[in-house]
Design a protein that fits this description.
D-Maltodextrin-Binding Protein, domain 2, 256 residues, six-stranded mixed sheet, 11 helices, 3 domains, two-stranded antiparallel ribbon, alpha/beta
Length: 256
């Protein structure tokens, strides 16, 4: 049975989790434009191979649980209902009153942003992306204040955990920090870039432990003019991003 799951994702039976994640991400992207891909089956295969298999509850167990609930009387239903309602309100209300950006661009590194950054922001907004959110996070291990660097790490970690980031523009140092957790950034192999509709010279890919996670844009003035400071500038995509169309538009704009 496992071989079937590996075949569905197009990976070998000895594939490690990062390879499985990479294959799954590629299928997820392709499915946006190919209705023939059965994502329910792909999701089941991914869940099985990564240990996210949900337990199967038999009919006998269901019947036993129903009888046990009936014996407890009606009061627990009110208690459970109240808990569920409270959880729903906690999770849903913030999303009602907080508008999720269509594209979240984050500058991360040990530099300050100058006025030229607005040029890049305006160009992205001119693409027709209505709600663009730009965040600037100062992160520099050589900062004069250890507290400032620590605050930057907390801000970056919070942004990634809350899935608020899409396109990241980083210094080399910040890029290395992001990859302390290799699940933070999307793998950007040539095949995945092709699936995204992005054509780039392979020499632009920035690798970490032999895996491409970023694109070198140090020679592109639209980006470098938006930051003050020297050194390598890299763009990368947060692995949690769900705004692929907007990210693709922004990356293509940068390389025009």
């Amino acid at each position: 049975m496992d071989k079937k799951y590996y075949d569905l994702l197009g990976v070998s039976e000895d594939a490690k989790k990062d390879v499985i994640d990479n294959a799954y991400n590629k299928l997820l992207i392709r499915a946006r434009h190919d209705d023939s891909i059965d994502m329910q089956t792909i999701n089941d295969a991914y869940d099985h191979l990564t240990g996210n298999v949900k337990p199967v509850v038999t009919e006998h167990e269901k019947s036993r649980r129903e009888k046990a609930v009936k014996r407890t009387g009606a009061m627990p239903f009110y208690i459970i209902g109240g808990i569920i309602l409270a959880v729903v309100l906690i999770l849903v209300l913030p999303s009602i009153f907080t508008k999720t950006p269509d594209l979240a661009v984050t500058f991360v590194g040990g530099y300050s942003i100058n006025d030229e950054a607005t040029i890049l922001e305006n160009k992205i907004e001119d693409l027709g992306i209505k709600n663009v959110e730009v965040t600037r996070i100062f992160l520099d291990a050589n900062a004069s204040s250890a507290e400032a660097d620590y605050a930057g790490r907390l801000a970056l970690g919070g942004m990634l955990q809350s899935n608020e980031g899409d396109l990241l523009i980083t210094t080399k140092q910040a890029f290395n920090y992001l990859l302390i957790d290799d699940a933070t950034l999307m793998v950007l192999s040539q095949s995945i870039l092709a699936d995204l509709g992005i054509e780039l010279n392979s020499n632009r890919l920035v690798y970490q432990n032999g895996i491409p996670y970023g694109i070198d844009v140090s020679d592109i003035s639209l980006v470098t003019d938006a930051v003050s400071g020297n050194g390598e500038t890299i763009i990368c995509i947060a692995n949690s991003s769900e705004h692929f169309d907007e990210v693709i538009m922004a990356i293509k704009l940068i390389f025009e």
